[in-house]
Specification:
single chain, 223 residues, Beta-Lactamase, six-stranded antiparallel beta sheet, two-stranded antiparallel ribbon, 9 helices, 8 strands
């Protein structure tokens, strides 16, 4: 990921983060992805929960096994370095030929999150991940309770997360491949160092998600 693209991402998302910090974190995440070939149980790699089966959305084959391992290990590497993370998850934004655009859980750490979410106006008011998938914009709720009080977000499920961040995972052209969603145990826990690591991870995850969704940067998959 050239520094120029990192600068463009930060500018597009309105993030006043150090390019050097994001670049260093990106290199670290990319290194994990490049060697991401650990032995991981199938039940972890291909999640099934309450009727949800990832294999119903993405073909189970050796290439996709490899991409899911990369996503799992990259997420785990950042999650394990940070404290007081309630949940962290990587969602794929499924192709537009589906009747209803949907976020589908690829991998997660911490407490369980929703395995699949319809991307629509109603869910965008409840789930920041859906809002990010719809808009392509990063959402940072440093104090979830305040967002609830202001009506910026709704739904009882948000009472358990003191702070939240949803970051789009995009192609170079800006089309949304998926969403990286993080929930924190403490409000006002989100600082520049934290955001730099998660933003870098979202950039690094573009490769595995493009492979899983069979997408190239020239395609506009969510027009």
């Amino acid at each position: 990921m050239p520094r120029l693209l990192i600068e463009d991402f930060l500018q597009t998302q309105g993030l006043k983060l150090s390019v050097d910090d994001v670049y260093a974190a990106y290199i670290a995440a990319q290194a994990v992805i490049n060697v991401g070939n650990a032995a991981i149980e199938r039940s972890v790699l291909w999640p099934e929960k309450n009727g949800f089966k990832l294999a119903e959305y993405i073909e189970s084959n050796a290439d996709n096994d490899a991409s899911l391992k990369q996503a799992f290990m990259a997420l785990d590497s950042v999650y394990s370095r940070q404290a007081n993370i309630r949940s962290a998850a990587v969602y794929a934004h499924m192709p537009s030929e589906m009747l209803t655009p949907k976020l589908v859980l690829l991998t997660q750490q911490g407490l369980g999150l929703e395995p699949d979410l319809d991307v629509n106006e109603e869910n965008s008011q409840i789930y920041l991940a859906c809002r990010t998938a719809q808009s392509g914009w990063m959402n940072v709720a440093e104090d979830t309770a305040r967002w609830l009080a202001l009506g910026e977000i709704s739904g009882g499920r948000n009472a358990s997360a003191e702070a939240q961040v949803s970051i789009p995972i995009c192609t170079k052209s800006g089309a949304v491949l998926g969403v990286l969603h993080i929930e924190f145990n403490n409000k006002n826990q989100i600082n520049d160092a934290t955001l730099a690591e998660w933003a870098a991870l979202s950039l690094a995850l573009a490769g595995p998600l493009k492979a899983l969704l069979n997408i190239t940067d020239e395609e506009t998959e969510h027009d």
